[in-house]
Design goal:
- The chain is of the alpha/beta class.
- The protein is built from five helices and seven strands.
- The strands form two sheets. A five-stranded parallel β-sheet has the order 3-7-6-4-5. It has a two-stranded antiparallel ribbon with strand order 1-2.
- Strand 6, helix 4 (about 125-135) and strand 7 (about 140-145) form a beta-alpha-beta unit.
- The longest helix has 12 residues, at about 125-135.
Length: about 160
């Protein structure tokens, strides 16, 4: 076996890299902007840039409102639309199913009852809700956790890991 060497030199005229790319936008996701605050070395939080013409058919639910409803007997079927690796880092303890937002299938959701959808920051949850509506799920059954698990951690359970 032979190894070769290549010479690499620094391009002094190139603009220095000072922050990570917007990976959601880079991967053709919705327009997002990174929050300009110290995130303590964790991955960047995402804030979706609202679109004036965007109208949601599903419900958006705040974490504290969700907790109140759960405490009063609300028992939705809970869908985590993050990757399995993200779910393994931190998850709501009452999650019923983990399916990435692009892989959500109608066969995986119950035919009746409310569905609570969550992701990291809320954007993939919105996409999953829209996908489920396209697949024929009644939008009145769908509830997207506003701000995702990051907002749940901030507003409800600060002891949860943050990534």
């Amino acid at each position: 076996m032979k190894f070769g060497e290549i010479g690499i030199s620094k391009d002094n005229e190139r603009e220095p890299i000072s922050e990570l790319i917007d990976y959601q936008g880079f991967c053709a996701g919705p327009k997002v902007q990174t929050q300009k605050k110290n995130t303590g070395g964790r991955t960047m939080d995402e804030v979706e840039t609202p679109s004036a013409e965007e109208k949601t058919l599903y419900h958006s639910i705040e974490p504290k409102e969700c907790l109140d409803k759960l405490s009063n007997g609300w028992a939705p079927w809970v869908l985590d639309v993050r990757l399995q690796t993200e779910h393994e880092i931190v998850a709501l303890p009452f999650t019923d199913e983990v399916a990435p937002h692009r892989a959500v299938k109608i066969e995986n959701v119950p035919k009746a009852g409310d569905i609570l959808v969550y992701c990291k920051a809320g954007t993939r949850g919105k996409k999953a809700c829209n996908r489920l509506i396209e697949l024929g799920v009644d939008p009145d059954r769908l509830h997207n956790l506003d701000g995702g698990i990051m907002r749940w951690q901030k507003d409800v359970d600060p002891m949860m890991p943050r990534y």
